[in-house]
Design brief:
alpha/beta; 6-stranded mixed sheet; Rossmann fold; 3 domains; 26% strand
Length: 501
């Protein structure tokens, strides 16, 4: 085995009440793509933050290209040769493409910003990525895939020897993923050590050469070749057992009459002649590529865009939903959004408040306001029911793991006793064990009689959960696939034939 270009050795990091890293080790070779795997809470984010100077380790050491480093800030880490592309974009919207690329070291001449040098350096970095963009282009308005490659270009500008990619394909189409992978392989072939963090094991096996697995803050598998291993073995290392989850139990037949119907619906978001129905006790999937109009349709059902033609019917009656409050109070419709941090939660508020917010009108009094005691009692019910892991009910939601945040986002709608629940990308960025638990939970909601409209870009997830799959393309319904047997091969083929018809 070649000498590693980077070693993080015996890293320990403790936060109040939590040992986030427990002698974790990461070894990287130049010219390799290395998977970093583990459940939510395993220590991956903490390790990345130490590598990039956001946190300082309590003990342990890091060596890059033969020299010991201890970055004290992201800028310090970039100067040392460690670049990172975060799951959540880290670009300045008001700056141009070129300005974002050189942000860690803006060229200057005689004390003034050298605009020509910025353009030249940006073109150099963009050319390496085959990205045809003018450096003067504002980053606001660019696609997710373009923004992602600009993040990679920032790493090229700082001549990163180590490049960390944290969940880089979360919001990408298959073609965008393949383009990113082509770029990553080119960087590997040029000698960069790439760390790929992902919950998508199929991508890990397609792209990566070696793997490190973290569990409970410790490295339980170090720099092992991926060739010769398999998915079950990796899951065993991550969760301590090889079997992910029992098959979902069969559900009783749904009620005969739909609780939600769309009949020839058109919207000012661009939908044309959309028809579908959902019955109590049924999970209906909305599947399509990014840009198909699925999330936009969900938001139209909540009154966030206007229905311009056709009918939305709830319990057989045509309705006009004014806003989210009207959707919940008048028609018992809830919505778990894709972007839980921006749309689903108050990150700077405690768990109790986030869960109780949908029922404040029921647990409050006119003159005394919302009862904290009743908030706590209500929250305790759903913390227990959903298995939300937290230090206390007053813990801020922003301090929870992604999986627990998603459970809080779901809990507030269960607390409101919704009858129709729209769930948009429920398991994005969630580890394999929590994902399996979410699948079981969504199935239980249907058994309890909820009508579930499920939006997911994860086709295996769709096949596992949905009773029927409605396929969308170009803001229209292209067809429907029955999924009674929940068998992946025939259902996925039928879905993809409608996508590409």
């Amino acid at each position: 085995m070649a000498d590693p270009v980077f070693v993080a050795e015996n890293l320990v990091k403790t936060f109040p009440g939590v040992r986030a890293l427990d002698k974790a080790t990461l070894r990287l070779e130049a010219g390799s793509i290395h998977a970093l795997l583990g459940e939510n809470g395993a220590g991956k984010s903490t390790l990345i933050k130490i590598l990039t100077g956001v946190h300082r380790a309590d003990s342990g050491r890091m060596v890059l290209d033969g020299r010991e480093i201890s970055p004290s800030s992201p800028r310090d880490a970039a100067r040392a040769g460690i670049g990172v592309v975060h799951q959540e974009r880290n670009l300045v919207p008001g700056f141009s493409v070129g300005e974002n690329i050189v942000l860690q070291g803006i060229p200057a001449r005689r004390g003034l910003v050298d605009r020509a040098a910025i353009r030249a350096e940006a073109r150099r970095c963009l050319k390496q990525l085959d990205l045809d963009l003018d450096p003067e282009t504002p980053t606001a308005g660019l696609s997710v895939a373009q923004l992602q490659l600009i993040e990679v270009a920032k790493a090229l500008h700082t001549n990163s020897q180590v490049l960390l990619l944290d969940e880089p394909t979360t919001a990408s189409t298959p073609s965008e993923v393949e383009r990113l992978f082509t770029v990553v392989r080119r960087l590997r072939d040029a000698g960069t050590a790439v760390v790929f963090v992902s919950h998508k094991l199929e991508e890990v096996f397609e792209l990566c050469d070696t793997v490190t697995v973290l569990r409970d803050g410790a490295s339980v598998l170090e720099a092992a070749p991926l060739a010769g291993t398999n998915r079950e073995e990796l899951v065993d290392r991550m969760v301590g057992r090889s079997h992910l989850a029992e098959p979902l139990p069969e559900r009783p037949p749904p009620a005969p009459e739909p609780v939600l119907e769309l009949v020839g619906v058109c919207t000012d978001a661009g939908h044309r002649d959309v028809s579908l129905s959902v019955r109590p006790g049924e999970i209906v999937g909305l599947y399509g590529l990014v840009g198909a109009g699925r999330s936009e349709l969900a938001k139209a059902l909540l009154g966030l865009s206007k229905v311009t033609a056709g009918e939305v019917r709830v319990r057989g009656r045509a309705v006009r939903i004014r806003d989210v409050r009207d959707a919940l109070r008048s028609y018992r419709i809830g919505y778990v959004p894709e972007d839980r941090k921006a749309e689903g939660l108050f990150l700077d508020q405690p768990v109790t408040r986030n869960i109780a917010v949908t029922v404040w009108d029921k647990i409050g009094a006119r003159f005394t306001g919302v009862s904290q005691r009743r908030e706590e009692e209500l929250a305790a019910t759903y913390v227990d029911q959903l298995g939300i892991r937290l230090a206390s009910a007053e813990q801020l939601v922003g301090e929870l793991s992604g999986g627990n945040q998603q459970k809080v986002s779901l809990a507030k709608w269960l607390a409101a006793r919704t009858e129709i629940l729209i769930i948009d990308e429920p398991t994005v960025g969630i580890d394999v064990r929590t994902k399996a638990a979410f699948h079981e939970l969504i199935g239980q909601l249907a058994v309890a009689g909820l009508a579930v409209l499920l939006i997911t870009s994860d086709l295996p997830e769709m096949v596992a959960l949905a009773d029927r799959v409605v396929v969308m393309r170009g803001f229209q319904v292209r067809g429907e696939v029955a999924n009674d047997a929940h068998e992946y091969d025939p259902t996925s083929r039928a879905v993809m034939s409608l996508i590409h018809a």
